[in-house]
Design brief:
Blueprint (H helix, E strand, L loop, with lengths): L2 H14 L5 H25 L5 H17 L8 H21 L1
Helix pairs in contact: 1-2, 2-4, 3-4
């Protein structure tokens, strides 16, 4: 997965968002950075390639997870780990606003 592909995916989601405030852009920027970091770590440490499809599916799980706190029922550790990374980063992002 190329950097431009992941950015393109997140930008398409951001464009669909009704409110594109600076805070929304900051969140999407954090999601992009953490995704690219995870991608690089997985490739370097385990030779696993994170795909755009992995990220797209994980994005679909993000809002329900944030609303309920329940992880999706899946055995796909790539997506679960990415979802947990995003959640942790969102908590830190939220804490820094206080």
């Amino acid at each position: 997965m190329e950097d431009k592909d992941i950015e393109k995916l997140f930008l398409s989601v951001a464009e669909a968002s009704e409110s594109q405030t600076g805070e929304v852009k900051d969140v999407f920027s954090m999601l992009i950075r953490s995704t690219l970091q995870y991608r690089d770590e997985m490739l370097a440490s385990e030779g696993i390639i994170i795909t755009v499809e992995d990220v797209r599916v994980t994005l679909e799980h993000l809002v329900p997870f944030l609303e309920t706190g329940r992880l999706p029922v899946t055995t796909d550790n790539i997506k679960l780990n990415l979802l947990k990374i995003w959640s942790d980063n969102l908590r830190q992002f939220e804490d820094s606003d206080k």
